[in-house]
Amino acid sequence: MRLLSVNLGRPRSVPYTDQPEGLTGIDKRPARGPVRVAAPGPKGVGASGLAGDAVCDTRHHGGDDQAVYAVAREDLDDWEGALGRTLANGAFGENLTTAGLDISGARIGERWRVGPTVVLEVTCGRIPCRTFQGHLGEPGWVRRFTRKGAPGAYLRVIEPGEIRAGDPVEIVHRPDHDVTVALQFRALTTDRSLLPRLLPAGTALHPESLAAAHKYARTHAG
To answer: Which residues of the chain have pLDDT under 70?
Structure first.
């Protein structure tokens, strides 16, 4: 298990974002050399957990619980076959392109050591948006991406440090519940009846997912 690339985005003006300024940092490219990783601060204030990476829409992206976004190269390869086009590392706006990791099967609260010092914790899957669809230029992309159910994972920074392409990735903690990224994503998108099944993950869940699970459980109690 290893990092194939660490990807950073610069602010870019595009016609397909809801941001008033029309800016997005979704177009990410592999960085050369080490990149500093640290908790960026709460959502709405903090942006990316990677130094030099832009998050322009801090209402919906970035912050401590979405500090880093990881996508498996294996999933990009599957999409290449389905779409009939090449997808470079960073094509989905991910910060980390990995090899050998089952990201959809990762459990919420699972911790990864990346390189010698950085520890990251899985919080949730990525919900696709209009900006993502515009960036890919694929009609019906939000629906198609959602249907596949392999969204990649957002992570929070537990221990800061530096990472670079080629660093090993080690799973150093795996919770004993069965709440995976794939399950959390389905519960938030295509099957909300699954929301109560997220509760065993507790506060390791992204706070918005945890609140949705509690609300559904209360509403449907009995």
So the answer is: 18-20, 222
How many other CB atoms are there within 10 angstroms of residue 161's CB atom? 16
Residue whose pair of structure tokens reads 């950085």 in the numeric block: 118
| Residue 77 φ/ψ, nearest 5 degrees | -65, -40
Inter-residue long-range contacts of 37-40, CB under 8 Å, 24+ positions, other chains counted: 37/67, 37/68, 37/114, 37/118, 37/120, 37/157, 37/160, 37/161, 37/162, 37/163, 38/157, 38/160, 39/64, 39/67, 39/156, 39/157, 39/160, 40/64, 40/67, 40/157
Under 8 Å CB-to-CB from 221, ≥6 apart: which residues?
none
Q: Position of tokens 């990762």? A: 106
In DSSP terms, 71 is beta-bridged to: 97
What local confidence, expressed as pLDDT, does residue 222 receive? 63
192/215 Cα distance (integer angstroms):
11
